[in-house]
Amino acid sequence: MINFLPQLYDNELFYSVIARYRRMCGMVSGRAFIRDLFGEFVVITSSNFPQYIRNFIGNLPPTSKVTTKEIIEKHTLFNFYTSFLNEEKADHIYETMGKGSNGSRLNVEQQIGFGGSKVRKPSYLRYCPLCFKEDIDTLGESYWRINHQIIGAYYCSKHHVLLKESSVLSTGNGIEFICADEQICNEELLEDNYSDTIKLLNLEYIHNAELILNRNFSRKDLNYIIDFYIDRLREKRLASKNGNLYMKDVQERFLHFYPKQYLELMQSSINPDSPSNWLRLFVRHNKGNRSPVRHLLFLQFLSIDPPDLLLSEKVVGKKKDSIVHNPSFDLNQRREKWLKLITENPGANRSQLKDKGKGLHTWVYKYDWDWYDKVTPKAQLGKEKAGTIDWEKRDEECLSLAMEAVEFILQRKGKPIRVTPSSIRNILGFGPWFHNVKLVGTQRYLHEVKEDINDFRIRKIKWALNEMVYKGDRITPYKVQLYAGFGGSNKEVRKLILKELVWIKK
């Protein structure tokens, strides 16, 4: 029987609670200590995914209000590692943590997918030197924080300094319960040699990871999640209307978004020449294991907060159009005639082929779209010889597309994107030719529509405030600044936030 239990700190790992309890009660024998905790001798193999929680709760004093649910959801990494699993798998892992594996061949980490994943979890517990110093000054002791153990987290989300690796193993047979004290931790900061880009990318990643860590969202089936990704890629013109992915473009944009060094740090390097690299397999419907690290990387690439996925209720994904053929025509005959038209007009684009075979084009386009889209040449914008380009017509087309892109950027859900010539070009998926000076009207429009940096900051601040109010978060200038993704040290942004808060209060 456990006679007392130390106060459970916010964001404290269950392992850390037990380590502090052991120090307080002064038990030397590890075997006797385990029996005291769980009522029987069990083998503890993981600090992140403890088991036999129900035994532990049953050994607490009758007056204790601590529950199994509280321990698993608020003092372990359960929410983080199961957020992208379906309900059945998440429930099974929850049950295993509650009652123990009881001789089962698979422990929790194997059920989550670590066994077959190339994304490996940290081997040692980590801590923030500044959090450690604050704890000692205010609490007289420190503790192991859950968010510092998130796989892929290199910084402390509070102090924006590098996390330090301790000498305490996070996994192993019969792990010891060691406190985060002066013998293990210190206040010395690590030298940060990472670029600002990598730091900002990782801080946003940590912010997104903490969103799912601190809230128990309902789980989605993997097929639903993949369909959600296809819908978002379609919005970015990286998939066809039917949901067929433009995988080459997706890969190019992803590698442009993330520096090579950062992908290496996140154990998610990509060989663009490999047809089976993880990104190509990630957005396909298959049963392969997907690490939460890569889900978060992909969501960040799409500029989507995890709750937007986990709270969504409807997806489309790939569209399977049922072809109802006109009985007055034979499908094969129509296809033969369309292929003959293409052969007889080499170099013709779709618009020109439409003019040359109007009735035929209408039928094939309407009733046999997938085949039509596969065999019919697409217009290669920007690749024609200079002498063959009608720049006036091209300018009109690009101007119209640019206006649509601006409307999309301003109306899209999730974290705002600044309206700039480059962001418009990225949305459209065009190359450098889009900034050609011969596109006079388009370039004038791009210059006129470019969003002032402070206007963008204000729009981003308003978005953050709306999000925080909706979620019931406590609003302070510092928290708004971090939520909006500006970091905590930008004084100009802080002034804008204070003005917005004053305006709200009025």
First CA to last CA: what distance?
56 Å
Number of beta-strand segments? 2
> What amount of the residues lies in strands?
under 5%
Summarize the amount of helix as a percent range. 40-55%
Spatially, the strands of the biggest sheet line up as: 1-2
Number of helices: 25
Gyration radius (Cα, Å) is 28 Å
Give the CA-based shape: elongated
H/E order of the elements? HHHHHHHEHEHHHHHHHHHHHHHHHHH
Q: Spans of 5+ residues with little confidence (pLDDT < 50)?
A: 381-386
Largest sheet: 2 strands, antiparallel
Topology, pairings included?
Layout lengths: L13 H12 L4 H9 L14 H6 L9 H7 L3 H5 L4 H13 L8 H5 L11 E4 L1 H10 L25 E6 L26 H18 L8 H14 L11 H11 L2 H6 L12 H5 L9 H10 L4 H5 L20 H14 L5 H7 L1 H10 L1 H7 L15 H21 L9 H8 L11 H10 L3 H19 L5 H7 L7 H15 L1
Antiparallel strand pairs: 1-2
Helix pairs in contact: 16-18, 17-18, 18-19, 20-21, 20-22, 23-25, 24-25
